[in-house]
């Protein structure tokens, strides 16, 4: 593991989730630096893997890292919510046996200060795709007070979102994440294990990359495709993402789709698309929590599509 620049979260649990897939295609929707991808290729020697990422730096690195697997690997650039549709259309649902999505920013992206994800960064960017038009600079310096209030409340779940939004508007322009973090420090929640600016940065990052919209679109693409036999595993890092995944899996597992206020069932009661394999979210083991503190907020939910 020493040569891996970013150890993926829940790496044992991911391998275990897909261990029984003997052939076919697994789609890694969030390839990053190839951690999960390489482990699945090693554990499942007969599968093919199609990996997706929008970060060219990650693609360049992982192309070299995964080249030893030859034609078992195909890498696609773009947002996974749209690229997965093309993959499904190209290969068909019967060949796809697994879908993995690790919904979060990688440790390397956080640690590279020029990317603007960290509260210590001298930049204010946060784009997972460097070619995307919207950056954190645009959000922080150009959004209205009302727009800032919305993302701080909805994506950061910050109670004093109005005061923070007002403080940002009154102190801008900002040119760095560090400047933004320092300027709002006294308004941030303290006493938690996380840095006071974490929720602020999270809210801005989600807006810049449309992370919740991407997740919803991915789940809708899977639902529209109706896989015949595939395992879907989603790793999320905060309550908003986890809630979306949990609610979607619950909907997929229901036999009856009649309205809640219906007097009696009039559907076929045969509408379940499969079954939930993780009744509770799967979380990191103690040794991983010690070696990788960022894994503490990771939750994986798994669904077996059986239609």
Describe the model.
The chain has a 7-stranded mixed β-sheet, with helices on both faces. Helix 1 crosses helix 2 and helix 7 packs across helix 10. The chain is globular and about 55 Å long. The protein has helices spanning 11-18, 35-43, 56-65, 80-91, 107-111, 136-142, 145-154, 161-171, 177-184, 198-209, 211-225, 239-252, 286-291; strands at residues 25-28, 48-53, 73-77, 96-102, 230-236, 274-276, 299-305. The protein has 307 residues and is α/β, with parallel strands linked by helices. The mean pLDDT is 90.
Distinctive features:
307 residues; alpha/beta; 7-stranded mixed sheet; 13 helices; 13% strand; globular
Topology at a glance:
Blueprint: H1 11-18, E1 25-28, H2 35-43, E2 48-53, H3 56-65, E3 73-77, H4 80-91, E4 96-102, H5 107-111, H6 136-142, H7 145-154, H8 161-171, H9 177-184, H10 198-209, H11 211-225, E5 230-236, H12 239-252, E6 274-276, H13 286-291, E7 299-305
Parallel strand pairs: 1-2, 1-4, 2-3, 4-5
Antiparallel strand pairs: 5-7, 6-7
Helix pairs in contact: 1-2, 4-11, 7-8, 7-10, 11-12
The portion of residues assigned to helices is 40-55%
**Radius of gyration, CA atoms, in whole angstroms:** 20 Å
Structural class from helices and strands?
Answer: alpha/beta
Envelope shape: globular
The order of strands across the largest sheet is 3-2-1-4-5-7-6
**Portion in beta strands:** 5-15%
End-to-end Cα distance: 38 Å
**Main pleated sheet:** 7 strands, mixed
Uncertain residue ranges: none
Secondary-structure element series: HEHEHEHEHHHHHHHEHEHE
**Number of DSSP-assigned strands:** 7
Mean pLDDT across all residues, rounded? Answer: 90
**Continuous helix count:** 13
